[in-house]
């Protein structure tokens, strides 16, 4: 439309929804990359005499503290996917005896859990991108809680039912990661997204460390059924908190958070409620039709990133999945409780990585953005720039997210190889634990950076792209679980982890491929969908 002789563009809130993933053109005006470092301000843009004037406007009506509360709620829910998978591990020998089955058959329930863990988010994530985050999140937690009741009561003569309920349990728990990532994409801008994903990924990745510790203590003290009663109560409490406190965030339903929706999208306790006291955007992006998330694998910039991230995740799982077996053999003086506590080493590394990676990604993103603004020319007082930066394929979002990862992968690979030979040489237990800590830091940094970039590239399909990431990680992780023990038996600890380190070396060039060709692929996809 034309106002006082100036051309008024679409607001930033709809530009992010419609333009960044190339599903439809948002036009040449997009100032999301020009946000101030500490704010969530988007821009309404006006073109005057060949220049673009950007007017500050909130991208989301939620304050910074409210966003943290929303992300904490999402992170608590996201914890269930890996936590539910790993809390079960220490009880496998006991369950095998009670069911009169071999350990290999009980391990099959772990493999099937991981398969469903990868597949189910493709369904739930796609639904949430159309019908909303809040109702789908609550539904998943209800399924998880009910399946845990069934597992706690399952008869030891019904192995088939144990397998079925574990698959159902995975269906409920696994999708919470994809849903949480979609929530973060709804309420945050790229220059603040890294920090929020750091906290969110902590909940998602701490499960492999905390799960075995809690599971071992429960199984030893109260029996293996207590594990599932604990999960039932935990998921029910979390689901109640989500139902009472979490607002709907999907922008095609509530816009920037200022638009009221139906009762199913309304949280009863209004601790986070900005509808009536903040002036937001009245513009509601159109609700997107159903899309097949598997089509994302056809985008080379997405596929390269998914394969790289999945390989690092699988190698990391090769460390954690074999920890109890290796440590029991190499350090026979450890009891089951001690071995469970050893899982805290990678968990502590993940905690440190969540703090460092998020802050670093946000800081470097702003540096890249500010450098590019200075190169193109900016009037800091009038906020006038000669062109929109984000829509220009030369904006190096891939570099902003991935530039440090070659060094991180180098450290990760070195520690993986060192870890194997430390165990082969049976050195003091402090050495492999320290290496596990560093492995946790570096693996978390890779996971956080790649996840953030994926959402940056497909912002209005945050849950769907995270589901794609999840299926690749889980299927590759399941493959690693199935081969790691035979490799250890056949090759020994040292050479097994040399091979795993070699896998990291083989996929590391994909980082340079992504940084070099990613902008071109993104721009080509955007043009194809115009």
UniProtKB/TrEMBL annotation:
Transmembrane segments: 68-85, 105-124, 136-154, 160-184, 196-215, 227-246, 297-319, 339-360, 404-423, 429-450, 471-491, 497-517
GO MF, one annotated term: citrate transmembrane transporter activity
The keyword Transcription belongs to this UniProt entry's keyword annotation: no
Compartments where found: Membrane
Membrane topology field: Multi-pass membrane protein
Major location (coarse): membrane
Keywords: Glycoprotein, Membrane, Transmembrane, Transmembrane helix, Transport
Major facilitator superfamily (MFS) profile domain boundaries: 70-519
Pfam families recorded: MFS_1
Annotated protein name in UniProt: MFS general substrate transporter
One record GO biological process: export across plasma membrane
Keyword hit for Glycoprotein: yes
GO cellular component: plasma membrane
Gene3D superfamilies: MFS general substrate transporter like domains (1.20.1250.20)
Superkingdom of origin: Eukaryota
InterPro entries (alphabetical): MFS, MFS_dom, MFS_trans_sf, Tet-R_TetA/multi-R_MdtG-like
Originating organism: Russula ochroleuca
């Amino acid at each position: 439309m034309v106002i006082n002789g100036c051309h008024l563009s679409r607001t930033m809130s709809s530009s992010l929804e419609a333009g960044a993933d190339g599903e439809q053109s948002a036009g040449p005006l997009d100032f999301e990359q020009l946000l101030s470092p500490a704010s969530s301000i988007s821009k309404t843009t006006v073109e005057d005499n060949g220049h673009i004037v950007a007017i500050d406007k909130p991208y989301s009506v939620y304050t910074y503290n409210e966003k943290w509360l929303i992300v904490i709620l999402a992170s608590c829910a996201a914890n269930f996917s890996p936590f539910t998978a790993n809390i079960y591990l220490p009880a496998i020998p006991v369950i095998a005896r009670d069911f009169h089955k071999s350990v290999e058959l009980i391990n099959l329930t772990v493999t099937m859990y991981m398969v469903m863990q990868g597949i189910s988010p493709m369904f739930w994530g796609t639904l949430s991108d159309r019908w909303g985050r809040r109702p789908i999140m609550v539904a998943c937690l209800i399924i998880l809680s009910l399946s845990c009741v069934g597992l706690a009561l399952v008869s030891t003569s019904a192995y088939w039912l144990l397998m079925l309920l574990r698959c159902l349990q995975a269906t409920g728990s696994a999708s919470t990661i994809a849903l949480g990532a979609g929530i973060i994409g709804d309420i945050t801008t790229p220059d603040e997204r890294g920090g929020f994903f750091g906290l969110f990924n902590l909940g998602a990745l701490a499960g492999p460390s905390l799960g075995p510790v809690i599971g071992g203590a429960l199984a030893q003290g109260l029996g293996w059924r207590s594990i599932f009663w604990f999960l039932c109560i935990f998921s029910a409490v979390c689901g109640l908190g989500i139902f009472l406190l979490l607002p709907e965030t999907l922008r095609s339903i509530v816009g920037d958070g200022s638009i009221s929706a139906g009762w199913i999208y309304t949280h009863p306790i209004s601790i986070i409620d900005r509808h009536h006291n903040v002036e937001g955007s009245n513009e509601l992006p159109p609700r997107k039709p159903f899309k097949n998330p598997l089509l994302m694998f056809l985008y080379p910039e997405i596929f390269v990133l998914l394969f790289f991230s999945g390989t690092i995740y699988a190698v990391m799982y090769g460390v954690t999945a074999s920890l109890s077996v290796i440590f029991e053999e190499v350090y026979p003086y450890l009891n089951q409780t001690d071995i469970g506590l050893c899982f805290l080493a990678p968990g502590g590394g993940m905690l440190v990585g969540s703090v460092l990676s998020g802050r670093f990604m946000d800081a470097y993103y702003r540096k890249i953005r500010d450098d590019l603004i200075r190169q193109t020319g900016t009037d800091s007082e009038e906020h006038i720039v000669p062109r929109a930066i984000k829509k220009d394929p030369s904006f190096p979002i891939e570099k902003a997210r991935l530039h440090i990862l070659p060094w991180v992968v180098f450290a990760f690979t070195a520690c993986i190889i060192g870890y194997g030979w430390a165990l082969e040489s049976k050195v003091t237990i402090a050495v492999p634990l320290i290496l596990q800590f560093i492995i946790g830091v570096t693996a978390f940094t890779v996971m956080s950076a790649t996840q953030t970039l994926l959402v940056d590239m497909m912002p209005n399909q945050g849950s769907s792209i995270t589901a794609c990431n999840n299926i690749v990680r889980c299927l590759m992780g399941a493959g690693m679980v199935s081969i790691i023990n035979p490799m250890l038996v056949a090759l020994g600890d040292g050479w097994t982890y040399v091979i795993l380190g070699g896998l990291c070396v083989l996929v590391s060039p994909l980082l340079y491929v992504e940084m070099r060709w990613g902008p071109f692929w993104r721009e080509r996809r955007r043009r194809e969908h115009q």
